[in-house]
Amino acid sequence: MKTLKIAIQKSGRLNEKSVELLKNCGLSFENYKSSLISPVSNFPLEILFLRDDDIPEYVQDGIADLGIVGENVINETEVEVAYLQKLGFGKCSLKLAIPNKGGIEALADLNGKSIATSYPVILRKFLEQNGVAAEIRTISGSVEISPGLGLSDAICDLVSTGGTLKSNGLIPFADVMHSEAVLIGRKGIEEDPLTIELIQRVQSVLRAKETKYVVLNIEQKNLGAIESLLPGIKSPTVVPLAEEGWVAVHTVIPEKDFWSKISQLKAAGAQGIVVMPIEKIIL
Ligand code: ATP
Ligand code: MG
User: Fold this and answer.
1) Are residues 80 and 187 located together in one domain of the fold?
2) What value, to the nearest 5°, has the Cα angle with vertex 25 and ends 23 and 26?
3) Euclidean distance between CA atoms 130 and 193, whole angstroms
4) Which of ligand 1's atoms lies nearest the C-alpha of 71?
5) pTM value?
6) How far is the CA of 239 from the centre of ligand 1 (A)?
7) Which of 49, 52, 140, 168 to mutate to test the pocket of ligand 1 (most atoms within 8 A of CB)?
8) Could you say which ligand is closest to the alpha carbon of residue 69?
9) Number of domains composing the chain
10) 53 CA distance to ligand 1 centroid (A)?
């Protein structure tokens, strides 16, 4: 039987979440830090552990069929791959940042200035689109210290919390791109049945992460008021309780409007609200 290969980051910011996602998809494999390749025992898949920079090209060239990598790395390497699924982790922004006392107020003020970055391809396109003629200084790491060393007037770097910028006296100034981890595949692999199966498993894990399972008790006469608040997957399950006139309602609600829903449910007469995480949702 054919075996697929999926490339994930060997170590770094995306490694742990990538491994967790694959394990939540029911895949059993050893996560040896020392090995480059790990077979999955219960699915025809092998996991390749690589530097994230190499993943897009490995996938484009078919050395790996699939890969998990940040969109920033895909755009920077300008590869031709299929985007299969956004994964909701590794979120960050590529931002332009300037020293606190820089005298730069608008993008146009970057004309004639130098910008240090590890993302010259993305930055060049952004500057062209905005009609800015600045000099790009490509450096592979510790970009944030370059203005302090007099190497550049500004930087373009990945930011998630902004803490690193702040501690280096830099202020974010413009967003170049937003990024998150995505599942990519070599062109054409989206038709492959094993890939389709894997994407479905990934989606069921992601859906479950975005929702909570809620059980609550309510007087039968108040049921109408809460049913409109709880669309559920189809509609809520309503079970009679031993106590006359009371029912238990089982449903799922989206994580994002969780707190506002809970207070609306309480206001509508819900009691004994129990909230549980969901492992998978298969539609
Ligand atoms: P590798 O050794 O695999 O080349 P790396 O040092 O290039 O790793 P990491 O710092 O581990 O990369 O980041 C991997 C990815 O995590 C980034 O490409 C980006 O998509 C995402 N990411 C999320 N938040 C941040 C952040 N604050 N800084 C950098 N990357 C971030
Ligand atoms: Mg890298």
Assistant:
1) yes
2) 70
3) 43
4) 20
5) 0.91
6) 48
7) 52
8) 1
9) 3
10) 10
pLDDT in tens, the chain (283 residues): 789 999 999 999 999 999 999 999 999 999 877 779 999 999 999 999 999 999 999 999 999 999 999 999 999 999 999 999 999 999 999 999 999 876 788 899 999 999 999 999 999 999 999 999 999 999 998 999 999 999 999 999 999 998 999 999 999 999 999 999 999 999 999 999 999 999 999 999 999 999 999 999 999 999 988 888 886 656 789 999 999 999 999 998 888 888 898 999 999 999 999 999 999 999 8
Are residues 82 and 125 located together in one domain of the fold?
A: no
Strand pairing of 66-70 and 271-277? unpaired
* One-letter amino acid of 86: K
**Pocket lining for ligand 1, CB < 6 angstroms:** 9, 12-14, 51-53, 70, 72-73, 90, 92, 158-160, 179
Residues 54, 131, single domain; the answer is no
Q: How far is the CA of 241 from the centre of ligand 1 (A)?
A: 51
Q: What is the CATH number of the domain that holds 237?
A: 3.30.70.120
Give every CB contact of residue 251 below 8 A, 6+ residues apart in sequence. 213, 214, 230, 232, 236, 237
With beta carbons less than 8 A apart as the criterion, state whether 54 and 79 touch: no
Domain CATH number, residue 187: 3.40.190.10
Of ligand 1's atoms, which has the minimum distance to the CA of residue 10?
3
**Contact assessment for residue 9 and residue 50, using Cβ atoms and an 8 Å cutoff:** yes
Residue nearest to atom 6 of ligand 1 (CA): 12
The interface predicted TM-score (ipTM) is: 0.97
In a domain, 159, yes or no: yes
Cα–Cα distance between 113 and 152 in angstroms, integer? Answer: 8
Please give the residue range of the domain that contains residue 55: 4-89+180-208
